[in-house]
Each structure stands twice: as structure tokens, then as C-alpha cells.
Amino acid sequence: MTKTEKLLAVFSATVKAGGGIHNTSELAFMLEEASGPAFTKFLADGVKKGVLRRVAKGLYESTLTPPEPESAIYQIIKKLRSGVLNYISLESQLSHTGDISQVLIDRVTVVTKGRSGTFLTPYGVIEFTHTKKPINRIAPNLYFDPDIKMFRATTKQAIADLKDCNRNVNMLVEN
After folding, report:
1. Which sequence spans correspond to the domains of the chain?
2. What are the backbone angles phi and psi of residue 137, rounded to the nearest 5°?
3. Exposed, middle or buried: residue 166 (CB in 10 Å: 0-12, 13-18, 19+)?
């Protein structure tokens, strides 16, 4: 089995387990390879050949066995800001709960304890907004969504985040 075939087998197995987005280090580990310049070139060659797709800096998916489109963007979010608290909030959460009339189609707004940043992916734009609030003030206002395997803000928290970030509150639906 060639290294490329082995890589595709790894991707296929992880998609069946609900994954499918991996960073360079994870792929090197699963293939029992050293994660260095040679491995990075191997991945770049896979992208050129159309076997892999780069979905964000250092993150890849298989073009033959891509992850479920509905969950892929959330996998990317978790990989881009792993090791810190991230939760769906702001306009994305308020749209999800029906508290704003707009429906966000190609953007996910995420509040993070990590760095702010915007990432363009094949699945849409991911917008991270940093919060300075301590986790013990945020945590009681979050709930886990098993469909996306991420935390979401309660409506109260999402509105507070919107105000803290000086974002447009005029779109809120009056109850």
C-alpha cells in the first residue's frame, strides 16, 4: 500500500467515526511518519493531485471521503482554536434561536478565549471574536449541542456578547 493509499484509508476510517478534518500533526501520527518539511510537502502534493483539499491553514480533508458538510465547519472551528473555550454565539446563535430575523448561511460567529480572527473555508466563513470574560461567568450560560458537538450560548449570553462586542442590536426580534 502506498503512502497516499494509506492516507486515504485513514481519512475514510475517521469519516466513518464522525471526523474527517485533520491537521498535519494528526495525519503524521496516524501514518506513523515524522511531521516535518517532507511530510508537509507530501500533503501539498496530495492537494495538487486532487486527493486532499486544504480547508484552512494546516487543515485537510480527503476529496474522496469528505466529512458531512453539515458538521465539517464545526470540526474546522474546533481544530483552529483547540485547547481554549469556544462557543457559538452572536449572530449565528441568535439566528439559530430565532431571536434575529436574518439567517446566516455562509458564516459562523464564535466567541473564543483564544485569538480573534476570520477564516475563509470551503464550508463558509468562521469569525472568532475574543472575550476577556472569565470562564466562570460564561459557563453557566452555555449548553452543549450534541448535533454539532460544541457549546452554544443561551439567548441571554448571545445578546450580552453582541452588546460587549458593540455589534448591531437593531436586528433583535422584539418579543
Report:
1. 3-67, 71-164
2. -90, -25
3. exposed
Angle between helices 90-97 and 155-164 (to 10 degrees): 150
CATH number for 3-67 (one of 1.10.510.10, 1.10.10.10, 2.60.40.10, 3.30.460.30): it is 1.10.10.10
Identity of the amino acid at 133: K
What are residue 17's phi and psi, to 5 degrees? -90, 5
pLDDT of residue 138: 94
DSSP 100: B
Q: Which residue has the cell 460567529?
A: 109
Element (H, E) at 97: helix 90-97
Question: What pTM, to 2 d.p., does this model score?
Answer: 0.88
Residue 174 pLDDT > 70, yes or no? no
Which class for 17: exposed (0-12), middle (13-18), buried (19 or more C-beta within 10 A)?
Answer: exposed
| Angle made by CA atoms 70, 44, 35, in degrees to the nearest 5 | 95
